[in-house]
Amino acid sequence: MDSADSPTKTQAGEDENYSLLCQAHEEFNNSEYDRCLELLQELETLGESSGPVLRHNRAVVSYHKTGCTQHAALLKELEALTDAPGEASGSLSLKQGAATATVARYNRAVIYYHRHMFGTALEKLVPLVARLEALEKAMAALVATLQLQLLLATNQLNRAEAFLDYLQYKLNLVATAPSSHPTEEPAGSATASPQAATPSTVVATPVGTSVEGTVAGLGGSLQLLQLITLVLNRKPVVIQEDGTPEYAALKAQQYYIMKDFQMAAKQLMRINNECTQAGNVTPQLSTCIANNMGVIHLRVRHYAIAAKFFQNALNFDQQLARNLRQSTLQTMSSARSCEILYNLGVAMLHLRRPKEAFQCFLVPVKQFHSNPRLWLRMAEACIMEHEAKLVEEDRQSQAGATPATKPYAPQSAGVPEPTLEFAALCLRSALTLTQHYRTKFHMSAVPSEDVEAPEPKDPTQESWRHPQDNNFCNPSKPVSLESLENMLAAIYAAHSFVSLRLGDHVTALEMAEQLLACERLSDAHKLLGHMYAGEALMLMDKAAEARDHLDPTFVGTLNAFDFETRDWQLKSVDAAQNVVRYNLAVALALQNDLPQAKSLLANLNHSLVGGKALALRRFIDLKMGPVPAGTPS
Fold first, then answer.
1. Which of 300, 327, 354 represents a domain boundary (last residue)?
2. Is residue 589 part of a domain?
3. Which of 157, 310, 352, 450 is most buried, most CB within 10 Å of its CB?
4. Is residue 404 part of a domain?
5. In terms of domains, do 172 and 259 share one?
6. Are residues 262 and 187 in the same domain?
């Protein structure tokens, strides 16, 4: 938060007013807010002409007097001060009003930043960034720092890097970061898993990210933000640790991006041990370390350990967010419950605990409601919970027990429950959002690794706005074309499956056909597309058309590795062939081609279809009647 304006001769007008301004500024710096307000009141009584300046400073002092918790009242005053006359007039009061409006607009953006309203903050900061070169150096450094933080917070990594070039070449606000040769310290090619929030969600944001301080202090903040930007953009850069947790955590981030997960975890534990010995461990730091340790274990598929770290991170975060209405803005900006719950939900899905995963996703979906990946994860939790209920009912029926109650009879339609009906709603949202973003997907030209990228030329003021990021899956990293196609295929497959379960065979067939028409389709999704299309056609009494999708020969051409590495029941090509052959036998039986169906069932012995194949064969035997004497069976 920018402090009260420093006094100058031009602000005072008279020696007495200037002296009072100096005293008020000194009292503010000494945290003597009551005395500062008295001096400002005295200035107003003496007829001080700088009305907007006094009003702004009085609002800032009052805000600090209340312990930096009553930001709503401050925001109201700042909004009134933002509409100030332009600087074109020669009137001193008009120029002072315009300068005060600049500071007020900046402070409004700071408030929105700390409240995690990053889009609003960026919008409020646009007029100041547009005339960054016209601002005095101290104010320009403040605006540039906040703008860079907002770009990083919203995963606009390309724009952040281009903005850095603009600051360096045009305004000379940041120095060139020390970099290593690419062959000595190669940049990594991946960050977090596609469904998890990246460590930058917490770690890459410096602890205590307010934009207070002197120009020299801001230079240090800009240098740290520069390093963060380069690391997140996978640029080869040397991070010289200075003993602070911020630089040490950034080093851990770099190890993670380079896929050296063991070193990343060791670095985080070293930070924790050093801060514990020094006695300066804070809930913010503990939250960062626990969350990022969880992300590392999630990346290496240690899901139970990852879930434990995320739960610890939530416990630390609750110490910060116990009463946000009475918290300072800095405390608000440190609260990361949404991102941590997002990660915990992903871990719970991998642990096959869909109820817990669904409850975890309900919180972040309120903030990241335009994230199609999050809607897909919620649908997956609903599907997993429904399938678990079916397995439990089948087990009880085989044991002779009767289920006590019908699973999931929601008490209120307004309360989300992990049901197939809610899964269908989630998938429709995910599909609509993904198709919308796909039409606006930005294809960025990625230079070859062996071709050294040219040095950026002297950028103009507007050039940094042109780079784009496919960052529509916040808080996850920006989406690549491959991950976008994979996500769309997963949505089509899940949508087709849910539609089959709900009896909507037309939608199931449509989604399966859309799945098969996808580009870069994996072998696993190709198999699912044909199976769901075949099942939908059979349920629509179109068994002849279903046979076209259930040709067992195409299964032999599929990549076995694609089956073995997925967390599902079909762990081999042999299992897939058995499932397809069984479905084909069902289609043949529906067409009364019983002998051929029976011959297919004779060789099905996989555990996935063994019981069903035996039941179908008995049904065919009954339908065909007894075998005549002397006829070979």
1. 300
2. yes
3. 310
4. no
5. yes
6. yes
Q: Which domain holds residue 30?
A: 1-114
Choosing from 263, 284, 300, the residue where a domain stops is 300
pLDDT in tens, 132-156: 888 888 888 899 999 999 999 999 9
**CA 143 to CA 164: how far, in whole Å?**
13
Interatomic CA distance for residues 377 and 361, integer angstroms: 8
Same domain, 154 and 284: yes
Question: Contact at 8 Å (CB) between 374 and 346?
Answer: no
What is the DSSP code string of 436-470? Answer: HHHHT---PPPPPTTSPPPPPP---TTGGGS----
- Token pair 């073995």 is found at 564
Residue 89 lies in a domain: yes
Same structural domain, 231 and 155: yes
Residue at token pair 């903030």? 367
CATH code of the domain containing 573: 1.25.40
**Token representation of residue 129:** 């960034």
Shared domain for 26 and 97, answered yes or no, is yes
Identity of residue 68 = C
Q: Find where tokens 């989300």 sit.
A: 416
State both tokens at 193.
Answer: 């898993």
- Same domain membership, residue 143 and residue 96: no
What lies within 8 Å, CB to CB, of 560 at 6+ separation is 572, 573
For the packed helices 523-539 and 505-516, what is the interaxial angle rounded to 10 degrees?
Answer: 150
Q: With bands split at pLDDT 50, 70 and 90, how would you rate the model's confidence at 86?
A: very low
CA distance 35 to 55: 16
Q: Which two tokens stand for residue 227?
A: 């390093």
**What is the value of pTM for the model shown?**
0.81
> What would the pLDDT profile of 439-471 be if each residue is shown by its tens digit?
888 875 444 344 444 454 444 455 677 778 888
DSSP 188: P
Q: Are residues 511 and 591 in the same domain?
A: yes
Could you tell me where the DSSP H helices lie in 503-549? 505-516, 523-539, 543-549
Q: Which of 485, 489, 497, 482 is nearest to 514 (CA)?
A: 489
Instruction: Mark 556-586 as b/e (b = at least 16 C-beta within 10 Å).
Output: eebeeebbeeeeeebeebebbbbbbbbbbbb
- HEC per residue, 381-414: HHHHHHHHHHHHHHHHHHCCCCCCCCCCCCCCCC
Rounded distance between C-alpha atoms, residue 507 and residue 10, angstroms: 72
Q: Are 370 and 433 in contact (CB under 8 A)?
A: yes
d(CA 362, CA 270): 34
Q: What is the pLDDT of residues 240-290, one digit of tens each?
A: 888 888 889 999 999 999 999 999 999 999 999 999 988 888 888 899 999
Token pair recorded at residue 100: 């005060």
Contacts of residue 391, defined as CB under 8 A and 6 or more positions apart, other chains included, come to none
Distance (Å, whole) CA 227 – CA 177: 7
Structural domains of the chain, count: 3
- Residue 417 in any domain: the answer is no
Q: Are residues 255 and 142 in the same domain?
A: yes
